Amino acid sequence: MSRIPHLEWSSTQSSILTADNSALSHWKRVPFTKEELPHHHLASGTSRGAFESFAEEQPRGHPVVGAWSRTLFTGAYSHTTDADETCFNLQALGWFIDFRLPLSKPAFRANSLSELSPEELRAYARQHIFGGYTRVELNTGSLPVATRHHVIDWNYLRDSRPIPNKWRVRMQRNNNVWREVAFAKDEEGEPYYWEKWERMLGDGGGGEYAAFRRRGDFDGIIVCVGGYFNYLFPRRGGALSDMEGSPVSVVDKLVEAGDLEGARAVLSIRGGHGVIVDGNWVVKRSISPWEEGRTFLSSNDVALEASGARECKIKGEVWDIVEESRPGYVESLFGGAVKGRHWQQSNL
Length: 348
Prior knowledge:
8 helices; nine-stranded antiparallel beta sheet; alpha+beta; 34% strand
């Protein structure tokens, strides 16, 4: 198979995040529990109850709430910047969706996953999106600490990440720029990786946010901050490959074996980022480029019984409103004309 620079993107990201595969040794010096591992609740099916418990203890007004873009990612002696990938990290009070799109990703003429060629499937695999709950601890005299728990994850099939997704928050005084620094440290006492995040214009300073989670067996997350939204849906039917390894390596093996349907099943996660204008939600960037430019939701797609309600219907399906910064904010996202509407039947 041919090798192109884009095919190295995922391995480069992994190398930076693990400081050339040294992260596990650094974490051996830091005690943690299995419940802190990012895929623990996903693998055990306990995320709904666990996240409700987390929400009861989550501090309000912590500094990470907002819509963020990543301008620098560095670990060991490597780094990437926003000239290499575009990141849309939407963080409500607890719920988040983090979307990373390499700028080296080739343009596809396809209008669906089924139209991608074998080599295009391999290129399509090199991107990342994940979502779940960020548990934040505020301690007087020390930096805030965040631990992320993933409930939908592009990079998760069967192999759970063996160390926590846990980091400290070093915020600038203006609250518009911060560094995510690894909780564990290297032999010299320095964080083994760090990321620089900058506030996206139009997020309202992180003061207005909402998050939705679809009920039932087929999960789904929507996170809104200011005028932005991210969305994320899992693999259809919980599709998993029997092969071990990362989704990227599994897709490469499936393509090489000629199992294109298996590769497409691994890549069937949907997700993206968009803007909300006058009740219309328009997709700007997506895992699936054929979704870009489309209307994701409009006021006609949503029914809300009352302001402050804890559930709504989106195209006929019940979603829990798991976070809302103030009563009435969810209603305002759809132009304020969604209360008491007849609940339609459709598919999102």
